[in-house]
Amino acid sequence: MNALAPPSPARLWLRIEDFLLLEEAGVLAGYAKAELIDGEIITLNAQHLPHAKAQSRLLVRLCLEVERLELPLLALVECSIAMPPHDMPEPDIVIAHDAAGSGALALSSVVIAIEIAASTRAFDLGRKAELYARHRVPEYWVVDLETRQWVRHADPGIQGYGVRDSAALGAPLAALSLPGLAVATDDLA
């Protein structure tokens, strides 16, 4: 007699639609921030003062640079990016083409995704960098408050970013994908 083998455990990856249903139902309301990364819900700690200061200062500088250069772009804070089917990160800042609609920002609008790493360095430089590269986000910056440096990624591909460089905070951070756009970093940490 041939008995059927029990099915092996299988992992279920959530889709953006599943994540949004959970969010709308209030399931994630008790968490400071939740993102969908590789089909998995990732919750993050509340943001404390050093993170908030760095994020605010960088956002203001980026807005001023976009305006000075008369670029048809927006600097947005904590805007979810739809990366179908299993990803919806929420970077601290995103530089994007203006987009219509009321949902998450379309991936095609994103020019630069930016994370401020106060306690998330390994995640931001590892899994998040892989995610943004895989989805072909042209440029990805991490402002690392722990090591007091910035890390810039460009030239995305399936194997990661082809360009990765860094400098101590204090050195200007210039966009590789937007000639002329550069911001001071001296008082971010």
Describe this protein's structure.
The protein is of the alpha+beta class and 189 residues long. The chain has a single domain (47-183), classed as tt1808, chain A (Alpha-Beta Complex). Helices cover 23% and strands 32% of the residues. It has helices spanning 16-24, 49-68, 121-134, and strands at residues 33-37, 40-44, 73-77, 81-82, 93-97, 105-106, 110-117, 139-144, 149-157, 160-168, 173-174, 182-183. The protein starts with 15 loop residues before the first helix and ends in a 6-residue tail after the last strand.
Secondary-structure map:
Elements: H1 16-24, E1 33-37, E2 40-44, H2 49-68, E3 73-77, E4 81-82, E5 93-97, E6 105-106, E7 110-117, H3 121-134, E8 139-144, E9 149-157, E10 160-168, E11 173-174, E12 182-183
Parallel strand pairs: 4-6, 7-8
Antiparallel strand pairs: 1-2, 3-5, 5-7, 8-9, 9-10, 11-12
Short summary:
By secondary structure, the chain is α+β, with helices and mostly antiparallel strands. The chain is built from three helices and twelve strands, in the order H-E-E-H-E-E-E-E-E-H-E-E-E-E-E.
